[in-house]
Amino acid sequence: MAADIGLVCSPECVLGAAGHVAVAKRGSNQRRNGFFGCEQRDHYQRPDGQDHHTLFPGGQRSKEVWLDRTFAAQATPTNQPPAQVAAPAPAPKPAAAAAAKPPVQPPPVKPKPPKHWNLTVDLGTDLEFSQTRRELFYGHVKWTYGKDRLRGIVDYLANYGKNGGIVSANDMTGSVRVEEDLNKFKRVFFFDAAGAGYNEIRKIDLSYDDSLGMGYKLVTLTNLIVSGDVGANYQKQHFSDGTSKDYEAVRLGEQMTWKISRKLVWDQKFEFYSRVSGIGDYRLRLESNLRYLLSNNLNLNFTTIDQFDTQPAPGITRNDLLLRATVGIKF
Question: Which among 182, 200, 300, 280 is positioned nearest to 240, based on CA atoms?
């Protein structure tokens, strides 16, 4: 049973001088170990109409060689490689996938709202237990507020102490100052400053005053602010001997805040009151605070307060100087 037709060439099957060829018929009973024998055929007519050829007999082994594509196409191939199957066309992408979706953005982080107020509490003590017993306690609370053109400062100071069982310090002073800028440049401002207190050592049972005026910011840098003000002041004092005095004065003031470094801040204020009763009649107050930041909310303070009055209570010195060191907590 013939399946394939091919040309067989071998040293044993020799082509004649006229170009004889050997034709091999491959069948189920003629294939031995992948080789074919030669059989005699008197005449063979090729499909292209060429002359016939004589096939020499034999049975020797030979290799299988195809003559050409035209001759090989006359038989049904059995050992051709399988036809390649075209890969299926990729499925079209959905329209939604074609249009790339924008990446999902995380929700915006809301900025922390600005803090408009600050609270500082300073506490200190001076204790001595020996032949003489001395105890001194003092505290200072300062609250500041600022928003847009409005600023406010509330200040409270208290001292109490005993030396040898005798009261050596007992005073309290509170003040409120409000400022409002008058234009968008925030240099010219209006202010009102009021205060009240007492001082047992200086024989002042009660003292209160109020000042109104205008101010101007002389220096406005990122780490330095200096301002000056001028206005009118009224003060009344009640002394422990039952007498009292009223004073009208012209006020001159100066304030400075200087951030020397990341941890060191110096604030200072000076107030001078020239009483209208006479050129030589006046009072002044100087306060200086040097703060060193120990941590974000803890600082070490060195404070100097000097008060001078040309008309003190009877038997009291004109000058009163206070030096102290405190530990402060900032909220």
Answer: 200
